Amino acid sequence: MQMNNNRIAVLADSCNDIPQELMDKYHIYTLPLMINYKNASYRDRVDITPEEVYARFQEEIPKTSLPLPEDIAAMFKKIKDDGFDRLIVSSISSGLSGTCQALKLVADGIEDMEIVVIDTLNIAIASGFIALYAAELIEKGFDFETVIQKTQAAVKNATILFGVASLEYLIKGGRIGKVSGILGSALNIKPIISCNDDGIYDTVAKVRGRKQSIQKMIELTREKLGDHKNYYLAVCHGDAYTEMLGMKEQLQDLVAGAKIYVEGQISPVLGVHTGPGLLGIGIMLLED
Gene3D superfamilies given for it (predicted)? Predict the structure, then answer.
């Protein structure tokens, strides 16, 4: 792994949903969460793909778990051995997962590195954008303190919007948060879900039916971006590739203008909690 001059590394957990080519480009390390079936455990995105998780849903909906403390410690050691003594970690929301707390606990016990864990209060690529932003700042040569300060300040500028085909997986996984409209499924009411200021799932809009759900997400994205010219953008899916492409088609002008554009399938762990049929949009506003 190529080193940057000021010897700062970036680590993101696997639910940051950063595509491999961007991990490689920005030299971002990744730490997988775990997917646990009755008879075997798999590392998120390493030993199991989203497709495999969806295909097995009929026989078993697996559980998910945090990276083990020893795996976190081993990752920190690897980064140190690669020549980095300062590390910024982008973690998915503490309101949705114990990952952030686990990272902080292990980091507190490491004495030969400066490690700052950033609670992105977000999920999926909206968390990944924080890691990418930190990596861009490091590439520009900012010192450690400035990178931390700017990255921490950027947390409020990242947003995820998503809709699911069914709320049953969020309910089963205990991740329903403040999402109301559970009883709306009979009326085909589809909530648009985001993370609130506490990093917990909340409903930002309710619409009737799938088509309206997609249109509402696009409308909210355009509202959020307004006249901003400097932004990251992502479209993502969980076992709904064709619909994602249709959504992207309607966002072509924004895709073309994005400083970083990302598309793809969410991580297996996130797929467990949202089920097949997820569509989402990630946005991050940058300083103009």
Answer: 3.30.1180.10, 3.40.50.10170
